[in-house]
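My current task is to audit a protein record that another person submitted. Please read both lines and tell me whether the C-alpha cells look consistent with the sequence. Do not assume that whoever made the record got everything right. I have pasted the whole thing underneath without changing anything:

===
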Amino acid sequence: MTKPITLESLQSLTHDQLARRLILLNRVNATAMENAERFSDEAAKIAALARAIRRPGVSLVDRVAMLETVVQLAHHAETEAALDRQCIEYFCNCPPDEWDVIEQQINGAFDPATMH
C-alpha cells in the first residue's frame, strides 16, 4: 500500500523535484491508462467467448477450449492489473534519488543485467 502524501513530504522537495515528479507521474499514469485500455480489450474478448460458449450447436470440445481461453485471458488480465498496481505503488513510495531508475524503466532503457 502506498504511503499517503503529506504536506511535510512535499515541502521537503525542491521545485525541480516536484516538477520532475509530476512529469514522471504523468508518464506512469499514461502507461497505466494504456494498460487499462488493453485490459478492456481482454474483457471484451472474455465476454465474446462467454457468449460463444452459450450458443446452441457448439460442441463440448469447443466449449471446453473456449472456457480454457477465457481462464487464460482472465489470468493474464489479473496479473497485469496487479503489476500495474505494484508499479504505481512503487513509484509513489520511491524517493527522489531513485527516480532515474523509474525514468529509465519508463523509457525502456532499463538493462535487466544491472538488476540485483
